[in-house]
Amino acid sequence: MQVVVLVKSIPDPSGEAKLGPDFLVIREGDGVLDPGDEYAVEAALTLAEASGGEVAVVSMGPANAASAIRRALAMGAHRATHISDEALRGADALATAKVLAAAVRRSPFDLVLAGVESTDGYTGTLPMTVAEMLGVPSATFARKVEVTAGVARVERQTEAGYDVVECALPALVTVTASAAEPRFPTLKGIMSARSKPLEQLALADLGLSPAEVAPTQRVVAVEATAEKGPGEVIQAGDDDAARIADLLAEAKVI
Ligand SMILES: Cc1cc2nc3c(=O)[nH]c(=O)nc-3n(C[C@H](O)[C@H](O)[C@H](O)COP(=O)(O)OP(=O)(O)OC[C@H]3O[C@@H](n4cnc5c(N)ncnc54)[C@H](O)[C@@H]3O)c2cc1C
User: Fold this and answer.
1) What is the dihedral of CA 237, 243, 248, 252, to 10 degrees?
2) Which fold has domain 2-213?
3) Is residue 175 in contact with ligand 1, taking CB distance under 6 Å?
4) What is the average pLDDT value for the chain, to the nearest integer?
């Protein structure tokens, strides 16, 4: 089984994200593999190991996305495709989906896995757009993915529990943190990642022009969340219960 994982390189989430004057994330230094995408890589490796298949990762991002891609290779992915092009700076989710769909389409695949939403952009729209462009069904919020006889069986997380969804391959599935416990890359894995195939592509290699990936939306303003003021301490006394009741009524809780 050929499994493709869409992996995003993001600024280190342990640091403070900075925006430039154009409201784009400043991506200096090494990117890290989005922690949400590690679950998808792990789920792909588990499925491929069970079927004797292979895992390819595909990522669109600036040059520093290479370190995130290497981590996926060190975890065990067999090969990678990195699409980078100055014309993609500031690409929106639609443009990114066009690019990723064009890259996935270049080779036969059975299953595409992705995170539910990225940790930095978190539109949560990209995987389903890619599925639509590839003309394959998509199943989202998978807490478990199994493949039997050309059919993906997905336990789809819901607020009340989970639904069981089945779709014929090829298909695209987004996975949650419950789908797998990501393995740590071993030293051997880190060393072997250096010699695994890493294909570098520009926009033209995908047959796309800058006009086709021009952003259709842009961020025009960003506002910080208002800081919360200090809470009110209600001392035990004659009217404490009445004051608490008033506050609950104000908050429309009662
Ligand atoms: C040169 C260059 C500069 C860029 N600069 C920025 C920037 O400044 N700010 C910014 O937010 N983005 C930037 N991107 C990336 C791109 O704009 C976003 O990836 C895209 O908008 C997806 O939106 P999202 O993160 O909300 O996806 P979501 O829908 O929230 O992501 C869901 C899942 O889709 C997959 N996915 C998402 N993005 C990618 C990706 N790029 N590659 C592979 N898989 C992916 C992952 O599996 C992810 O878990 C840049 C890309 C390039 C090539």
Assistant:
1) 170
2) Rossmann fold (3.40.50)
3) no
4) 94
